[in-house]
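Predict the holo structure. Ligand: zinc ion.
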Amino acid sequence: MRTARNTATREESDTVSESFDTGASEGTTVTGTRTARTSRRGFGGYNNLNKTTFQLEGSSAVLVFLDPENFSYAKRHWIKYMSVDEATGKPVQVTKVEYCLEDEDDCPLCEIGDRAKPTAYFNVVDVSAPSKVLVWEATPDPTSAIQKEYNKLVGKGKHLSDDNMYWVISKEKGKNGFFSYSVDRLSEDDMASEWEGLSPITATQREALRHRAYDDTYILNQMKTRAELQEFVDSLG
Ligand SMILES: [Zn+2]
């Protein structure tokens, strides 16, 4: 199973960083709509074809977890700096997301005083786009909401990834400007009545999706070397 898992390429890792650059301060960008089949007009959907991360763009989406727990975790830095917009020539604030190297090496981003934040990585399927495995790069707020549900189930011998389980992921902007996430269990019947256009994902489909799930190489392929991070720090001036 492990060898059959997806390997994220360097190109994909660039895309992931880009998605954070556009201002997703909580870093849990997810795609999801309430209708199964939306318009194919425009670049948005086209760009989503290459997307590997789950990004909650609306207020809620229905997900399936493919594993009982996160498949990995890591600490990452969100570095904000000023750059020049190539199109307009005007200064713009950019956020770059980089993995912290403190566990293997001295981390140049820790050295400049930035505090890395933990991220938990989950293999998920957005039920509105059921043929694709996505990675939810969950920051602490959604991770604690997921863990609460995990804890409720584990005592009963159940798991987030059980075949009949669906999860509604919602976010709400708090007074502090940050999003707060909710993770709520959804039965197949409630999904059919409340979520127009979503079809159940069968046990067989889930098993097939699990063979395409991501593992630690997802992170390793995006991780920069110490020299690369040092070069980035030097470029900040
Ligand atoms: Zn660091």
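The pocket of zinc ion is lined by residues 77, 100-102, 107, 109-110, 116 (CB under 6 Å). The beta strands are 60-65, 72-84, 91-99, 117-126, 134-138, 166-173, 179-186.
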